[in-house]
Amino acid sequence: MNVSESIRIALRSLYANKLRAMLTMLGIIIGVMAVIAMLSIGRGAQAAITAQIQSIGTNLLFVRPGSVRQEGVRTAGSATTLTLEDGDALRGVVNVVGIAPQIDGGVQIANLGNNSNARLLGVTPEFLDVMNYSLANGDFISASAITARSAVVVLGAGIAQTLFDTGDPVGQTVRMNNQTFRVIGVMEAKGGSGFLNVDNQVYVPFTTAASRLTGGDRFRGQNTASVINVKITDPNLQESVVQDISDILRDRHHVLFDDDFTIQSQQDILNTANQITGVLTIFLGGIAAISLVVGGIGIMNIMLVSVTERTREIGIRKAIGARKKDILTQFLTEAIILSASGGIIGILFGALIARLISGFSFGGSTLNTVVDLDSVILAVVFSVGVGLFFGIYPANRAAGLHPIDALRYE
Amino acid sequence: MFRASAGKARNSLPPDDNMAAVIDIRNVTKIYKMGELDVPALNGVTVTIHAGEMVAIIGPSGSGKSTLMNVIGCLDSPTSGDYFLDGIQVSTMTDDQLAAIRNKKIGFVFQTFNLLSRTTALDNVELPMVYAGAKDGRERALGALQSVGLGDRTHHRPNELSGGQQQRVAIARALVNSPSIILADEPTGNLDSKSGAEIMGIFKRLNQEQGLTVVLVTHDLTVAGLAQRTIHIRDGVIVNA
């Protein structure tokens, strides 16, 4: 008996029990649909996050203060040892094109009745160029504002909208920590959500932030920076630049054993984000795969019922010359047709769901779901595998029936 | 052992006379195990059936008649003894080898027809050819259906046919692979007397015109009367032949 004959027989017997075949398939359809949809959503999220991180540029290094050792106690991230002078010292490093020291903090910002919590960044004029940001309106922080510790602020697009709605904030005043600041500019909207939402930031001169808003840790008579953003010419040169920066800082800080700073690259962040979303995708897909296994048990169940129901048919087939292998093939083919066609329909439905979800906006970032060939192949292989695995026991049972007993079965 | 030898002694055809013997069963026993208990169904049966014979096996229920039929039909292997079908030793064959023998050498006709429901007459008749892997199965199935007078019912399903017609489909299925023997188990048991007579007429015709070996298993003496020879079985032994 050849393959096409087995398929013909299997199709005919499935067709004879259309409703049952459909319901059995439904288990696999839902399982595969869930796997496809989850994987595509996961991949989409990964792509969105990657795109956001890359929009800032992959040629950035972030020098942060590391841990400090005081009387034998090591406190991570608590060092306040990076100064503006450290930043200036890094300007001479080969392949460095820009240095932007930054103070991080949080403020409550208010305009008349509207107020909001914002992330405060004390920055220098170079920040705009180094971080690849652009202004929508007005001016950015100038060098003279740094020297004068001016009470000026540049608003992120989100904050500007919260405080001024559609009005033009430039030239208006806002209050931060009960001090009046003049708005000199508004940033262009960048989108993003959570820790990536840069529209919820406000920018003041570095010196202003240190002296008037954040309390201003000082080290050797200098204001300290939370981060020194370093823009380099080419991400591929990152290693040598990191080495050079480390050498300079070790020298300046008289480091003997443990560095009191860490250097993180945009690439590192990208890798970490990819790792996290990758794990998330596998996790989602794994949960969906459980429903596929449940669908497989459904197939086994129905195949067992089918074998019992068709005992007489098996007896007839054996009496007129069907070998064990023929019966085994017949029932296995049936199980595989059920699971494979369920898998194909599931892929179509999963792709449809992915399509429907695609374009939805989550916290400012658009999710573009991707159904890639990998997940389709995975779904097909997995669903056929499920059919094979759960079909083999019932098929074996059918093949092992003794022709006399099977013929006598009522 | 006594019964076994008795069975042999009562057989009119000696076991070594296997000239043109299609079925040559020698001293066959079949013992079923029911838990601890051994239940003998055949106690040393020796039967020889020649090519072109039409033979009836009769006996009361529980006589071992069904067991003998199962052994002849290669549905079951004997516990001991030899069975040569067309000169081939089949009593020691594996399940798959027996399946091949059933496919090529034996055509079954059952009391309850045993056709596949939801399957057309033509597909039913073609089925043995499918398992034989034959390429001309379709044409031969058509020919077989025509030979039993059902050339115009090829695409009817069993539930659209009368009992007599269903049994004729079953006969066509038995004939399609040109078997060495036709083995019919109470072929008229589920039919009215008119259809029954028609079916027996077909067997008779096949036997006389085509020289087909027909073995009828029955307890109906009218049916048995149409055979050239009658084999009586009782308590697992042949009581005459």
Average pLDDT of chain B, rounded to a whole number, is 88
Please provide the ordered H/E string of secondary-structure elements of chain A.
HHEEEHEEHEHEHEEEHEEEHEHHHEEHH
Strand element count of chain A:
16
User: Order of strands in the sheet with the most strands of chain B?
Assistant: 6-7-8-3-9-10
Number of helices of chain A: 13
As for the number of domains of chain B, it is 1
Q: Helix/strand-derived class of chain A? A: alpha+beta
Largest interface: A-B, 22 and 26 residues
Radius of gyration of chain A: 33 Å
How is the largest sheet of chain A built, in terms of strand order? 4-5-10-7-9-8
CATH architectural category of chain B: 3-Layer(aba) Sandwich
Describe the structure.
The complex is a heterodimer of chains A (about 400) and B (about 240). In chain A, strand 4 and strand 5 form a beta hairpin. In chain A, the strands form four sheets. A six-stranded mixed beta barrel of chain A has the order 4-5-10-7-9-8. Chain A is α+β, with helices and mostly antiparallel strands and about 400 residues long. In chain A, helix 9 packs parallel to helix 12 and helix 11 packs antiparallel against helix 12. The mean pLDDT of chain A is about 85. Helices cover about 55% and strands about 20% of the residues of chain A. Chain A has 13 helices and 16 strands. By secondary structure, chain B is an alpha/beta fold. Chain B has a single domain, classed as Rossmann fold (3-Layer(aba) Sandwich), CATH 3.40.50.300. Helices cover about 35% and strands about 25% of the residues of chain B. In chain B, the strands form two sheets. Chain B has a six-stranded mixed β-sheet with strand order 6-7-8-3-9-10, with helices on both faces. A four-stranded antiparallel β-sheet of chain B has the order 2-1-4-5. Chain B is globular. Chains A and B meet through helix 1, helix 10, helix 11 and helix 13 of A and helix 3 and helix 4 of B.
